[in-house]
Amino acid sequence: MFLMHIDSGIGEDQHIRINHIAKTEGHSNLDIKVKDNKVEYVKLKITESKRFYTQAIRGKNAMSVPLLTSRICGTCSIAHLTCCTEAVEHAIGYIPSDQTIILRKLTMNGMMIRDHALHLFIFCLPDIFNKDSVLDFDKAQDELVRKAFAIKGAGNNLSKVIAGRAIHATYAEVGKFSHIPAEEDVSAIVKELKSVREYAIEFIELFAQSTQKVERSTNYVALVSKDYSFIGGNLKDSEGLEVKPEGYWNHINRTVIPYSQSSGYNFKGKEYMVGALARMNLNKANINKKTKADIPKYMDMFPSTNVYANNIAQAIEILHCIDNSIDILEGTEFVQEVPKPVKINAGKGAALIEAPRGTLAYLLEIDATGKITNGNIIVPTSQNQTSMEKSVAELVENSLHLHKHEIEHKVEEMIRAYDPCMSCASHFLNIKWH
């Protein structure tokens, strides 16, 4: 748990400092000023060290850069690998085969299952049972923990079969996959996915029973595709905008947040939200038919403005990824292809995919020798930072009647509902740090 203290002022003035927000994938602090029963400000201070990764890729060979950028984030390595690969392909005008696209979709499905399972079952599940962590579970929860790790293991194994590894995949390359899954491996992973499907439904039901609620109307932004894939499709928002992925860069603006080591972003000039909740709000019609058939009452919960519904949306996405992967694997005969040769030329390529925490964007410029001359990478947590601050402000303002320990727990749960990954949110800022 994190440490927190409230320095009581005169009357209705309070200053809340959370010096470490636990159970997120990275580090951050929170500073809240309350005056006259109103939240004066919320400052979410992402405290990761600057890693200069957009500078580090300059001068590197474009063909090898996807493997380098996959190291930006361990848990989302496949997301960075895939998005960077697509950006390189778009820059040089390369169109991969249909089978390569299918393999990428399966790789992304495996990552989603694994990553959502980590967030929901290790970080969030203890909240459901009023426990500090899964290490505090008693025997009554033993079976749930076993099922949680079985789901996560299935996601790991799907990525291993398709991409070589669950973390830092080795088979995925620009224009191709270097290895095609063997028939016996496909049969084994289909069997494993089917064995955990009922567990996924059980967890959806469990998270849907949560009474956590903070309603906040905001703009939701996500890629929308006909098969609820995490690659491809157009970018949409809840206000009616629809553009091709490269149009994203016409609407995004970086904002300097002086107290944070992460950039913030506005979409169309205002705060917004990305992630599973945004995807479900904008794209639930395209969820796998088998998924929708088995959980109709939970599908009816969307669209939603409840921030905590992001957890339920992730749980539904796990089931969708299981069903979608089974359909693909049972309906596809993988063959060893001879890909078109990759011809290097100068160009500029943009790519968008849906990472577990939301829209991930890459913009790369390549010269005639195949070297990266410039790059821009925008990760989901940075995009959600302003929305997180406003959600916390609303939560605290409505909770001032509670004991400080109750406020502490609610704030922690609120931040965790966004599933922030602080480690990949750090971005170089040319400002003076205080």
Number of strands: 15
Mean pLDDT: 88
The helix fraction, in percent, is 40-55%
The shape, in one word, is globular
CATH topology: Cytochrome-c3 Hydrogenase, chain B
Radius of gyration: 22 Å
Order of helices and strands: EEEEHHHHHEEHEEEEEEHHHHEEEHH
The CATH superfamily bears the name: Cytochrome-c3 Hydrogenase, chain B
User: Domains counted in the coordinates: how many?
Assistant: 1
The low-confidence parts are: 1-11, 427-434
Task: Outline the fold blueprint.
Blueprint: E1 4-8, E2 14-18, E3 28-35, E4 38-46, H1 53-56, H2 65-69, H3 77-92, H4 98-128, H5 142-163, E5 172-173, E6 176-177, H6 183-208, E7 219-224, E8 234-237, E9 242-243, E10 252-255, E11 264-267, E12 272-273, H7 276-283, H8 289-294, H9 296-299, H10 309-331, E13 347-355, E14 358-366, E15 372-378, H11 380-397, H12 404-417
Would you kindly provide a written description of the structure presented here, covering whatever features stand out?
It is a single chain. This protein is α+β, with helices and mostly antiparallel strands and 434 residues long. The protein has one domain: Cytochrome-c3 Hydrogenase, chain B, CATH 1.10.645. It has twelve helices and 15 strands. The strands form five sheets. Strands 1-2-3-4 form a four-stranded antiparallel beta sheet, covered by helices on one side. Strand 13 and strand 14 form a beta hairpin. 47% of the residues are buried.
